[in-house]
Amino acid sequence: MKNLLSTLRLAGAALLLATTLPLLATLPLLVAAQRSTQDSLLRRGELAGGRPTTSAPRPAAPTPRYRASADPGLTRFMHESIDLNQLPANQIPGVYERFLDATRAQRRQWGTPDWDEASATLGRLNARYEAVRLDLPLNDRLSVRAAQGEFRTLQGARSMKERLDDNKGR
Questions:
Q1: pLDDT at 69
Q2: 65, HSE (Cβ side, Cα atoms, 13 Å)
Q3: Which of 83, 111, 136, 156 could disulfide-pair with 140, CB 3.0 to 4.6 Å?
Q4: Given this model, what pLDDT does residue 50 score?
Q5: Integer CA distances (angstroms), 93 to 7, 98, 132, in order
Q6: pLDDT digits (tens, 9 = 90+) for 65-122
Q7: Which three-class secondary structure string do you get for the chain?
Q8: What is the pTM of this model?
Q9: Do residues 94 and 61 touch, judged by C-beta distance below 8 A?
Q10: Percent of the chain whose pLDDT exceeds 70
């Protein structure tokens, strides 16, 4: 009986090892594929994914009330005067978060022109992010990518809703 139990244990361990090793061998390939997919999505501005949680609340970035060189889209949607060309890397995640908060709050009242302007504004913010992203820690880069993805998800949901409404009207 003891020999049978020990044989079964060995067979179970061998089976576990035989199924695990091929999976472990494919991990480097999966990581490379994921990176290339993320890079291509980043280049196209179509990142998607869950929003990472932060360990501590991010302090609000001090911004002057009026700036002549402020981005008009950020001024319109966030009611803040932010010059993207002068925005330091450490303030970018906070701007993304506030822009996304404004998008969530206003999206139900937006029409297609509003979404187009918000998308163009996000494009300018993404360009600034690309210029300074290597200066940010990984956690901040992940939160920025999550914000990019959430915006595109909200935009896609609105587009789908409009299509469904158009089809109902026919």
A1: 76
A2: 0
A3: 136
A4: 45
A5: 57, 9, 11
A6: 555 678 888 888 898 889 999 999 999 999 999 999 999 999 999 999 999 999 999 9
A7: CHHHHHHHHHHHHHHHHHHHHHHHHHHHHHHHHHHHHHHHHHHHCCCCCCCCCCCCCCCCCCCCCCCCCCCHHHHHHHCCCCCHHHCCHHHHHHHHHHHHHHHHHHHHHCCHHHHHHHHHHHHHHHHHHHHHHHHCCHHHHHHHHHHHHHHHHHHHHHHHHHHHHHHHHC
A8: 0.59
A9: yes
A10: 60
Residue 64 above 50 pLDDT?
A: no
Residue 93 is encoded by which pair of tokens? 């995640």
Enter the tokens of residue 127. 């360009």
